[in-house]
Amino acid sequence: MIASRPEAVSSYLAWAKLRSNARFNLAASGVMDYPLAELPVRIEDIEIGGTGPYGYPPLMERLAAKAGVAEDCVVYTLGTSMANFVAQTALVRPGDDVLIERPTYDPLLTILDHIGARVSRFERLAEKGFKVGLGEFERKLTPKTRLVILCNLHNPSSALTDENTLVQIGEMAAKVGAKVLVDEVYLETLFNQSWRSAFHLGENFIVTSSLTKAYGLSGIRCGWILAQPELVQRMWQIVDFTYGSPVHPAEMLAVVALDNLDRVRDRARVLLESNRSLVNEFLAKHTSLVCEPSRYGTTVFPRLRMGDAGKFVGMLRDKFETSVVPGDFFEQPQHFRIGLGGATEMVRGGLGRLSDALDAFQRTSS
Ligand SMILES: Cc1ncc(COP(=O)(O)O)c(C=O)c1O
């Protein structure tokens, strides 16, 4: 008999959907929506039906070409969310040991909970720039570890894990027979440097990603998994009994977006460059926050040096109309996450409010 488990719930996603909205929203982690009107597409070009049995062939071809892999290494999914669900369910059985970073993106943990995995953690420490400590990582692996999970870039800190570190992670995991799942949804925000998906670093790597965060295309829900062909077969079987078939108009829009990715990318790059300098000016001014300057990605994850960060975040929202993500959702209650993918004037306004709130909070706490 299978023991019953409590319902798995992602309290973070419920919060993000119901309670993160504010006049100055610094809670979102992606680049703001790309306007549909700026994509060269007419309604007459879109059809309701016409997908393929396992992905729309023109889209599968583009996703494989973009990743530099064979098409039989690609599963098309509804966002990285579904990619993570399908990949984790394909890779983990109830009772399997899984080693996952802390802090991490909450739904990755919730899925493990839902499956009934035995979860252990390796720590990405704020004082070490949230880097993966290979020594600790290796000590946490056991002969029973089936899967290792990390995000690159890291959510919430946006720390980049370099290829050399990833190769070592892959080799250490391989020694105990474990696979490595890397969620790369933020990796495509590395607009100013070349990067390679971890999929290319070893046969035990599985990668999930999408067009959502880096390009402002969340609404199209174009996500994917890169994996070895035999695993891809299993993953498509899981697609069969979950969402079954994709939304064909979204597949067609994804093809248009991919064919015009340069212009979508340019707009995101310019936006993030401006917003990153605003965030870095803000961080340099506030010694009450501990945080390295932003170099990559769409978020920073400062620690409030003194006072209760949970209370501060509540006050920021109630009195200063500004939302950030409370660190509790990342198991780091003294931190909070600031997103820098919004409209520049909104980010500027939000950071101004954040400054005022920090000053007010210091006065009340001293
Ligand atoms: C690490 C990580 N993975 C996946 C997702 C979900 O991505 P998508 O919008 O592509 O479903 C998020 C969203 O915040 C995320 O932070």
Distinctive features:
366 residues; alpha/beta; Aspartate Aminotransferase, domain 1; Aspartate Aminotransferase, domain 2; 2 domains; 7-stranded mixed β-sheet; 3-stranded antiparallel β-sheet; 12 helices; 14 strands; 41% helix; globular; binds pyridoxal-5'-phosphate
What is the topological layout?
Layout: H1 11-18, E1 24-25, H2 57-67, E2 74-78, H3 79-91, E3 97-102, H4 106-115, E4 118-123, H5 134-140, E5 145-151, H6 163-175, E6 179-183, E7 205-210, H7 212-215, E8 222-226, H8 229-241, H9 248-259, H10 261-285, E9 289-290, E10 299-300, E11 303-304, H11 309-320, E12 322-323, E13 325-326, E14 336-339, H12 344-365
Parallel strand pairs: 1-12, 3-4, 3-5, 5-6, 6-7
Antiparallel strand pairs: 2-8, 7-8, 9-11, 10-14, 13-14
Bound molecules: pyridoxal-5'-phosphate (PLP).
Structural class: alpha/beta
What is the radius of gyration computed over CA atoms, rounded to a whole number of angstroms?
21 Å
**The CATH topology of the largest domain is what?**
Aspartate Aminotransferase, domain 2
Instruction: Tell me what portion of residues adopts beta-strand conformation.
Output: 15-25%
According to DSSP, the number of beta strands is 14
Mean pLDDT: 96
SS field, number of helical segments: 12
